[in-house]
Amino acid sequence: RFVGLLVRKARESLSQVLPDLLAEVRLLRHQAKVQDADRVRLIFDRGGYKDSLFQELMADPEVSFVAMARATQLNVRQWEAIPESRFRPYQPEGDDNPNLKIACSTTRITDCQYPLPSVVIRDDTPDTKQRWRVLFFENAPGHRPRVETIDAEYRQRQHHETGFAEYVHALVGHSLPKAYQMFRVPNEQGQKRKTIATAEAAHSRQAVHLVAWIKFLTFNLIKDFGAALGKEYAELHVATPVRRYIMRPGRLYLHAGYLIVQLDPFRGDVALNSFIQRLNERRLPIPWLGGLVLRVEIAAKPQGLAAAPNILGQRILANSGPPGRL
Predict the structure, then answer these.
(1) Is 265 helix (H, G, I), strand (E, B) or coil?
(2) DSSP E strands: which ranges in the chain?
(3) Whether the predicted pLDDT of 175 surpasses 60
(4) CA-based nearest residue to 78, from 136, 30, 124
(5) What is the third-level CATH fold of 248-326?
(6) Cβ-based burial of 130 (10 A; exposed 0-12, middle 13-18, buried ≥19)
(7) Distance between CA atoms of residues 90 and 97, nearest Å
C-alpha cells in the first residue's frame, strides 16, 4: 500500500528527499495514533547513499534502517581487509549461487562520525562483475537480528519497486499535470514550437499532488478489493482484478431508493458472490446522491445489446454490410 505522497522537483535524489519522507511518515503515524509514532524503520537503496544523511540517521535514536552501500574505493579497501575467518558460506533463499559468503563488520565513511554496522556479502565467483554487496544497518533498540535476517529484510524492498511499477503501468502513473509552464517563441513559420524557458507555475505542485494522490488512493482501493475477495486474490497485480472484475459491461438504474449497479454475467463472476453479498448487507448510503443506497448485482443473463451480439456488431459496423442489408 502507499501511505504518503510528496511532490518534489524531478532532479532531486533520494538522499535529498529522504529526511522529508521520514518527517511525513512520522506525521502519518501520529495521525493514526500509532504507539511510538516517532520510531521508524527505513529500507532504501543506493539512491539514499550520502555521508551526511547516514550521520543524521545514526544520530536519531528513534530511527533504524537497512540501506545498500556503494562500492567506493575507500569502502572496498575496508571490506577487503576483513579477515577470512569472519566469513562463512551463505545461501539466501531463491539464490542458487554457491560462491557467496557473508560476514558482519563495520564501515567508516568520510563525513559520518559513526562506524556503520555492515552486512558484507562477498561473491567469490571468478570474474564476477559485482563482488561486493554490502548493507549498512542500524537496529532498533533491543533488537539484534542475524545478518541473514537483515539481508532477507532488505530483499523485501523489491516489493516497493513492484508496487510502483504496477502504479505506473496499470494506472498510467506518469500521466500527470504539467509541473511547469513552457515559454515559447515563434519559429520561421510562425509556429510557437521553440521553448526558450520553463518555470514552475503557482499551482503546479498542487495539481500534480492532487492527481497523483487520486491515483495512489485508487491503487490502495483496488488492493483492498482484491484482499476482500480472499487470500488467493490479495497478491494479484492491480491490473488483474480491474480487468477481471471491475471493467465489465453493465448498467445503472434507480429503484425504490437504491442505486443498482448491475453487471452482465461473465466467466468467473462467482468469485464476486460473497463480496457482493457482504457489500449489499451493509446498505451503504451515498451522501452526494441524496442518500441513495448502493446495491450491486450480477444479471441472470446478458441484457440489452449484449444479449444479441449479432445486432451489436451491426450497430457498431453499420456501413460494413453488403448493399441492401442492415
Answers:
(1) coil
(2) 40-44, 63-68, 88-89, 100-107, 116-123, 132-138, 181-186, 192-199, 250-255, 258-263, 285-286, 292-298
(3) yes
(4) 136
(5) Alpha-Beta Plaits (3.30.70)
(6) exposed
(7) 9
The answer to whether 74 and 109 are in contact (CB under 8 A) is yes
**Residues 36, 240: contact at Cβ < 8 Å?**
no
pLDDT digits (tens, 9 = 90+) for 110-166: 999 999 999 999 999 999 999 999 999 999 988 999 999 999 999 988 888 888 888
Backbone region of residue 43 per phi and psi (left: phi > 0; alpha: psi in -120 to 50; beta: other values): beta
Please count the residues of the chain: 326
Pair 103, 88: CB distance under 8 Å: yes
Residue type at position 144: R
Q: How far apart (Å, rounded) are the C-alpha atoms in residues 225 and 220?
A: 9
User: Quick check: 310 pLDDT over 80?
Assistant: no
Nearest to 115 by CA among 78, 84, 146: 78
Q: Report, in this order, helix, strand and coil percent for the chain, each rounded to 5.
A: 40, 20, 40
Q: Would you state the pLDDT for residue 313?
A: 52
Where do the CATH 3.30.70 domains begin and end in the chain? 248-326
Whether the pTM exceeds 0.85: the reply is: no
d(CA 241, CA 170): 11
| 239, 282 contact by CB (below 8 A) | no
What CA dihedral angle connects 271, 277, 279 and 283, to 10 degrees?
Answer: 160
> E strands of 233-304, at which residues?
250-255, 258-263, 285-286, 292-298
- The CA distances from residue 325 to 52, 239, 306, 322, in Å, are 78, 41, 21, 6
| Residues in contact with 47: Cβ distance below 8 Å, sequence separation at least 6, in sequence order | 13, 14, 15
